[in-house]
Amino acid sequence: MDMLINPTVVELSRLQFALTALYHFLFVPLTLGLTFILATMETVYVVTGKQIYKEMTQFWGKLFAINFALGVATGLTMEFEFGTNWSMYSHFVGDIFGTPLAIEGLMAFFMESTFVGVMFFGWDRMSPKAHLVVTYLVALGSNLSALWILIANGFMQDPRGGTFDPNTMRMQFTSFVGLIFNPDAQAKFVHTSIAGFVTGSMFVMAVSAYYLLTKKRRDIALRSFRLAAIFGVISTVGVITLGDALGYIDAHAQPTKLAAMEAIWETNPHTVSASWNLIAFPSRTEQKNVFEIGIPYVLTPLLTHSEDTVIPGIKNLEQDAKPHIENGIKAMIALKAYNADHNDTAALATFKQYEKDMGYGFLAKEFAPDQDLAKVNASNLPSVLDKTAKATIPNVWVEFWAFRLMVAAGFFMLVLFAFAAYYSLKNEIEKHPLFLKIALWSVPLPWIACEFGWITAENGRQPWTVYGWLPTFVSASSHSVSYMIFSLIGFVLLYSTFIAAELYLMFKYARLGPQESHHHGEEPAAGGGMAGKPAFAKSSMNRS
Amino acid sequence: MKGLLTFITGFVILAFALFLAVITGDYGPWYFAWLVGTTMIVLISASGAAMFDRQDEELNQKGISSR
Lengths: 544, 67
Description:
heterodimer, A: 544 residues, 19 helices, B: mainly alpha, 90% helix, membrane (chain B)
């Protein structure tokens, strides 16, 4: 811990993780949502016996398979990155953070991966009802996978269920229940999972709109459009509701994130009339918004669900952090003394007194002379406090705009799905070609919203990897800059290949579309017309 | 015998669902919301699809449209 930390290595480690996470999340939401949409289609098939719903399930299942195969590959590398690039972080919180990750692998991922094979290749090997159960298990497995990952992320956002042990210098488990029922993890899981539902709905709706515009398999396209539009409109309402809940939870757990997200520099005591910034150009150096358009009377009820809760501004939060930083420095110096001599009970007592602020001491390390807190004295303390206090605030510009772009995309999709459901329920969708074109070209929106959502969540947590306990600056491994650049280039090249392959296959099979079939009537027997062949083999078999 | 097994299976599923509802309702309200919400989304969307076929049949009977 006394080795000098190279800030360039930390920034490169952050960049690498951000890129791999954002790449990975291009695949995840479609998996989360499309699995439940497939299960819904298959439910209609099993209940009504109409063959066309089986065709729909198999066709969309083929596109799901392409996404699933590439998505898994990008997810695995991230788990290794915790060990290779974030070894201090893994040492510090591995006992807690590793548990949900292990459960994710052993329970959810194995379940999902096993049943996904049965889902693709089991159409003629089991009854329709049994196959439907398998499809639901795939959907449940993929979402359970997200659950455990988001429980791990919830601990980073609002650490619960663990405590720091000065003897081992690690955080240790105190409550598994506290970890899994963390309010941040709960809201984030539902927000993320349902964002996946929105992504799946938009994907199915947009591709169906393309088929309707090109007059390709209208029977499948109209039904898929209807189902996706209804799935999407309810899911989008859910995403927005949970986004609000997550903001409310974060307002208590991470006030710095909230202040940055809304670009609030000053604390406004007039809570009722406080303005919510619709547009702002925040300036970190001037500590104000150089331009802003605000809507009065909206901020306090929107963020706090009350009229009289004061929302602290960034300047206040920086000042509030200073006593914590001072105490944190004392805690870290005492901890170092205790580690040198475990019989030093006075050092242990001092550490225990300031323990809850130890994270701020870690944070001050970056700004201490030679990164050594022991060298902080009366003359340089104000400077260290100032710099560290400013560092407690995330990048306001990124946070403000990432959040707004996510919200704008979300509300646009809500309107789009509402109109789509309305036109579809009235059987008028084909009378609105312009709307179909808008639906088609809106296909990237859920991905854009998801990516900006993650940027909001993770940039807003900065400067911490574990909020209030472990700063990002001390979490990275001690690699060389050249090693980081080399591995970064490797990842960019590899993942770009994956993306290119995904887009090529998706466009190819989506354009090809479901092939004509002769059996659109009632299901003649268990298994159905294409029974015996996996979804991949179906397109060529179905040609009339 | 088959009826009894079906009854027992249904009872076990019901008991598990109630147990899950009590636990998630007490400790994880948003998890509970996900369980109920996802079920609702699936059922309403499936109903929407089934409704499409009903509308389609009505239109076919009137000779207005066929898909």
